[in-house]
Amino acid sequence: MLDVVELRQRAGDKLGAYSQGMRQRLGIAASLLRSPRLLILDEPTNGLDPAGIRDMRDLVTRLAEEGMTIFLSSHLLAEVEELCTRVAIIRTGAIVFEGGLAELHARAAPSYRLRTTDPTRALAVCSRDERIRDVSLDGDEIVFSAAEEAVVGLSRALVEAGLGIAALTPQTATLESLFFELTEGAGDQRALEAVA
Fold first, then answer.
1. CA 124, CA 158: separation in Å to the nearest integer?
2. Tens of pLDDT along 164-189?
3. pTM for this structure?
């Protein structure tokens, strides 16, 4: 098991000489002694330096690729997004979403960022189109939600209004934004559990 968690070279060292990351990996090695089909990890990168986080992510990914199911509990949503294939989001003790990350991302309304030669006039053009939703100004960019065909129409309307389009960028919702969308108003009783 020391080979699996890449601690073979430190096998003779005393535990007190181990870093936090090495102790985390040793704990996983101990858990693997019985060849479990399911490994439950609670905040496995907590307290680790960047190299330790990378090593732990590599280990979790490798174990999952070898067929082990990893149940990961974490508040680090970027880590969950990087490591997991399925998530469950819990709000006040009830699961409000359970499924694949792709399925969760598909639930989000497509959103865009628009930068033009005149943000004020562009904001007015966007606001006139009922298919363009959640329109707001963020600095010198306009942020909005819309279906792709509405975005094509908006592009035409902006050009017809004499506005130059410097950038029109689709935005992918982050797991964090989706999490807050599903748990808004849940107070401190938020948790995210994920299965790798």
1. 10
2. 999 999 988 888 888 888 888 544 34
3. 0.64
